[in-house]
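Methods: holo model generation. Sequences were used as deposited, without trimming of termini or removal of tags, and paired with ligand SMILES retrieved from the corresponding compound records. Each pair was processed once, and we did not select among multiple samples. The sequence and zinc ion SMILES for this entry were:
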Amino acid sequence: MHHNPYAPPRARLSTRTPAMNESQAWREGDLAVLAPLGQLPPHCIRCAADAEQPIKERTVYWHTPWLYLLILISPLIYLIVALIARKRARVSPGLCSEHRTQRHHVVVGCLLASLAGIGLLVSGISASNSGIGLLGGFTLLAAIIFFLVKGRLVYATRIDANRIELKGCSEAFLASLPRRR
Ligand SMILES: [Zn+2]
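and the model returned the structure below.
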């Protein structure tokens, strides 16, 4: 199922008009950039085919990288300041039915692996078996890393008053966006 540029626009849940959306989303290198009220086009971010409707809205967060210096003082202070200072944006990254199914498998797989890891960790600790405990901890960590790499849709690399910069879109999707530079 590929996007047909001549097809009439599909009904959208958003109240914004398609013309406005398109002028407010563009690419810059490997970034998809949105104006503050801009929306991503309703295409799969992995393969650019028509996205399955309805597209789930997701919140992305970003804070200035300078805040990471606070970790050197105290991870807890960093966490509190980051939670207060982080900026958020609502974005709608689409997925086609195939890529939605694929991501569903990644999410379920990572969840099951995390639970297995926690189970091993707990039984390793209660049985004072450091081998099983380490195996559990490693399984949990691997599940989290795999989810961050394979399960993440898009993430913000900057959010300010003028623009939202997103990474994680495929080249096929980026190629469907107008280019600004
Ligand atoms: Zn797709």
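The first helix runs from residue 18 to 23.
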